[in-house]
Design brief:
Number of strands: 2
Helix content: 25-40%
Number of helices: 2
Order of helices and strands: EEHH
Strand order of the largest sheet: 1-2
Largest sheet: 2 strands, antiparallel
Structural class: mainly alpha
Radius of gyration: 30 Å
Distance between the termini: 35 Å
Shape: elongated
């Protein structure tokens, strides 16, 4: 009978059955090993990105002022949309003093199965 090898725990399970695998994978030590594995993997990925960025900066591919303040001219702000500028020249405002607005689309009602359910902090959740 072949044994099951767990890469995260670096161990062989004595019995290779679905129930044994499920029991092993739901265990505290296995979950800690999985968390540690992916934590280490994320740290290595972050460090490699930092190293690549540092190398690019040293080679001059990234300008030194990339993350500094905007240029003296200020950021380029696009002109306002014509509908926000008011009436065109020669057109009078209506009696109320403001331009009529288009009606807003009707609000969509949230679906009951997508609504958030509040949790009580005094009752521990089973996944913790």
């Amino acid at each position: 009978m072949p044994k099951f090898y767990c890469d995260y725990c670096d161990t062989y399970l004595t019995h290779d059955s679905p129930s044994m695998r499920k029991t092993h994978c739901s265990g505290r030590k296995h979950k800690e090993n999985v968390r540690d594995y992916y934590q280490k993997w994320m740290e290595e990925k972050a460090q490699s990105l930092i190293d690549k960025t540092t190398m690019a900066f040293q080679q001059g591919r990234i300008p030194p002022n990339l993350f500094s303040a905007p240029p003296l001219g200020g950021p380029m702000i696009p002109p306002p949309h014509p509908s926000m500028m008011g009436p065109p020249p020669g057109m009078r405002m209506p009696m109320g003093g403001h331009m009529p607005m288009k009606p807003c689309p009707p609000m969509m009602r949230p679906l009951p199965h997508l609504m958030m359910v509040p949790t009580c902090p005094a009752i521990p959740r089973p996944d913790r």
